[in-house]
Every structure is written in C-alpha cells, then in structure tokens.
C-alpha cells in the first residue's frame, strides 16, 4: 500500500467536508463547510482510480491534471500538487468552491459510474490551494522582461483577470478598466460569501496589483473613454465585460415596487458585507428581512438569491421555476443546500401576473407541464390546464438570466460587430473582434456561462494576444530598418 496509495475507493467511502448545521449557517454569510484536514484530503484523494482515460480532466474546461494532483496529494506531496494545479488554472481555490463539479469533473468520474461515489475533486482542489496560501507557497507573479507594449482589459471578472495575469507575466504593461469600485466582477459582487468568501477573491486581486497591473476602478467605457480612446492608449485591447442585462418578465404588474433584479439584490448584500453604505439595503428595498420572498428562476443565480434571503431573515422564501427539479439548470447541490436552509421550491410553475399597485403583495402563478423537447434537448414547459394559484410576496426577485448589453452603442463603437444575441462576434482562430487589435473573451462572447469557462477563455485569449503583439512588434522593427 505504501508503494501505491491509490484505488482505495473499494474500501473508502466518499466523504465531503462536513457542513455546518443548516440553522447555524443560515445565520451568517461564511462558507458552509470547512476545508479538509490533511488526513481526510489524502484519504479522499487516494480513492482516485487513476484511469487511463481521465474523464474528469476531459470534462474540465481547463483540462486540469486532476488524477496527477490527486495522486500527489495522496502521497503527501502537497506543494507539488499545488504547483501542478496552478499550472493550468489561475484561480484553483475559487474553482474548487464554485464550479458545478456535479456537472463537470465529479459528474464524469469513472468510479461514480461504478456506484462508489465520485472522488471529491472540488473539495481537494480547494484544500490544496488554501494550504498553499497558508504555507506561503503562492508566489508573486513572475514578470518577464519589459516588452515595451501595453494592453487594456475592459472588465475585471475572471476572464479579464486571467488574461491580465498571463500577459503581465510575459512582460506587457497591463491596465484593467472596470465599472465597479472593486475588481472581481461577479466573483466580488454577484456570488454570495457563503459560496465564496470575499477575502479569497481580494487576495488574488492584490497579487495582481503587486505584480504591477494597474486597476482603473469606477471606469465606464463610453462614459470615461470610448473604445477608440483605449485603442489609442494601448497596443491591444480585450473586451471581457461579461453579460449584465437582466432578462425581463412580461406580465401584468411587473413594474410594482418590491420587484427587483437579482444582481441588484446580490450586489447590495455583498456590498453590505464589505461594510459599504447601501441605502437601498438599509431602507428595505433590497433587504429580505421579515418579508415573504419569491424568487423566479432555476439557475445558480436564483439559488444565490434564495439562500441570501434566508440569511437576511426573510419570513418565507419560495423559488418559482417553470420546469421540474430534474430539468433545472442550477446545481443540484445548491438546491439541496437551499432546502436544508428552509427554502421551498415550487416546481412546474411560472408567474402570470403580480398583485399590488405601488408595492407588490403577491404573485399569480400558473401551473406548467413539460411538453416536447426544445432545441436544448430539455422538454419545453407549457401551461397546464389544471389552473393556477397565488403566492404572498413582499419582495419578488427576478433571476431569469442575463443577456449582453448593447456594447457598440455603449462603447461608442458602431464598427464593433455583434451576433443576433448581442454577444461580441469574434474570429475564433484569432479571438479578435471586427476591429483590429481588439479581442474579446468570456461571457461577452459565449453568453452567460461558468466561471471556469471564463478562466479558460482568458487563458486562450492571452496566447492569441501575445502572438498578435509579437507580430506587431516584429513588423514595427522591420519598418524601422527600411531606409527613409
């Protein structure tokens, strides 16, 4: 056993880090589970079967070397495990916390298919890098020789930060422009602390700032500078804004007070956690305390909203979703966590109208049933003749997803080509937009997606920008050699 610590899944059961009791964790915004003790991390890592075709790696957007760093962890070679994990991901401890492992790596684990329960990959990934931070193994960004070229990154979310780090390491001057007063994008203001504590994000940002990356906060492209202005300042520009325009509900009464957007609600809560002054929270507009709350939607953002409302002391919290549990897009683990904490799910139901004039008092809902499969392969919801019902509500939170903002107009750049969905159109070989030297990556290209895909896109576009800038520098050098 000393020679081969692996394949212990035949004798060791799957074991995740223990969650705090639901009643206790619902009182605060701390993460709901601690990280593994070392012995537990080693034991759970040793359950890996070291299969010849690692489906976990194949189904990870970053293609992390998962079996390899699991083996290193099982062998007690934790620093090597961290270095291997860090080689493919700029934010491994963040992915370990918020990736939907049940749909990606763990959901495709070979021993899961055999009925033994998947290796707890995400929890081990979190343990590895949290330990690396605690032990001082996370080194400063190693900045290469100055190349005399600069890039501008629009958006300080995971795609933008990943590109900024990788380009700074190659020796480029990097400026990041973001509309918020803190970097991190949805990592900072969209995802609640019980899934991702904010010091985890801020220490990543500080590491980038220490590397010489310049952050321009409260900077809105289109207001403080046009896209053309940024092109004039930099040798290349990356658009990594994400998608922030909330999808609308068309129903009578939707304009009543107390019907709010999910991101406004989550941002207010996260700002309050930072200690910021948040008038809309303090006056109750974006605060669920003592209220009957109805959240409309079935994705991860809806799960964030219902669990936040519980922690704010809501009187009741219901989640209204038009499909059934098996067909919801959000993580099943998050649904389970929410149910443990007191959220009631109202499946196969959709809003038909909102009661109340100046202030919402209830939601008139219609029952749904699942019909034929739609283009996504999921069965499409349709109204059920069985009729409807009413839910009392003092606060309704719309969490139906996000679309792209009108960037050509917003950026004052009509030549920026977009798709029919409003996402930025790119040449997928070069990752350039319709404007020379302007690249795009992350959700603004692929639509609302996962953080891990944004990191992957940031990694890919850094390679493309580097190739472009090297060619640009070479062409400039050649031009200087041409006789006048």
Automatic annotation (TrEMBL):
<keyword id="KW-0560">Oxidoreductase</keyword>
<keyword id="KW-0004">4Fe-4S</keyword>
<dbReference type="InterPro" id="IPR009051">
    <property type="entry name" value="Helical_ferredxn"/>
</dbReference>
<dbReference type="GO" id="GO:0051539">
    <property type="term" value="F:4 iron, 4 sulfur cluster binding"/>
</dbReference>
<dbReference type="InterPro" id="IPR006006">
    <property type="entry name" value="GltD-like"/>
</dbReference>
<dbReference type="GO" id="GO:0016040">
    <property type="term" value="F:glutamate synthase (NADH) activity"/>
</dbReference>
<dbReference type="InterPro" id="IPR023753">
    <property type="entry name" value="FAD/NAD-binding_dom"/>
</dbReference>
<keyword id="KW-0408">Iron</keyword>
<dbReference type="InterPro" id="IPR028261">
    <property type="entry name" value="DPD_II"/>
</dbReference>
<keyword id="KW-0479">Metal-binding</keyword>
<dbReference type="GO" id="GO:0004355">
    <property type="term" value="F:glutamate synthase (NADPH) activity"/>
</dbReference>
<dbReference type="GO" id="GO:0046872">
    <property type="term" value="F:metal ion binding"/>
</dbReference>
<dbReference type="Pfam" id="PF07992">
    <property type="entry name" value="Pyr_redox_2"/>
</dbReference>
<keyword id="KW-0411">Iron-sulfur</keyword>
<feature type="domain" description="FAD/NAD(P)-binding">
    <location>
        <begin position="151"/>
        <end position="458"/>
    </location>
</feature>
<feature type="domain" description="Dihydroprymidine dehydrogenase">
    <location>
        <begin position="25"/>
        <end position="136"/>
    </location>
</feature>
<dbReference type="InterPro" id="IPR036188">
    <property type="entry name" value="FAD/NAD-bd_sf"/>
</dbReference>
<dbReference type="Pfam" id="PF14691">
    <property type="entry name" value="Fer4_20"/>
</dbReference>
<protein>
    <submittedName>
        <fullName>Glutamate synthase (NADPH/NADH) small chain</fullName>
        <ecNumber>1.4.1.13</ecNumber>
        <ecNumber>1.4.1.14</ecNumber>
    </submittedName>
</protein>
